[in-house]
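Lab notebook page, bench 4
Experiment: in silico fold of construct C2
Operator: M.H.
Input chain length: 65 residues
Purpose: comparison with the prior construct
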Amino acid sequence: MRQQILEQANNFDNEIQAKYAQIVALIEKEVQEVRNEKMDRVTLANLLTQMAMQLNNEFDVLGND
């Protein structure tokens, strides 16, 4: 009986470790997606800023002064 309980406890431990690894992997994936989306927003903001500066003749596209 004791051996059976020990085996069951070990099985539960293995299952918990596997679930933990899955959760950590999912969280890391979501964090990376959020970082990528945030970076895309920064890039878009920079693009829109440059466009606004061009419309206001404040930004020289060719680098001519």
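Observations: Residues 54 and 62 are 11 Å apart (CA to CA). The chain has a mean pLDDT of 87.
Next step: discuss at group meeting.
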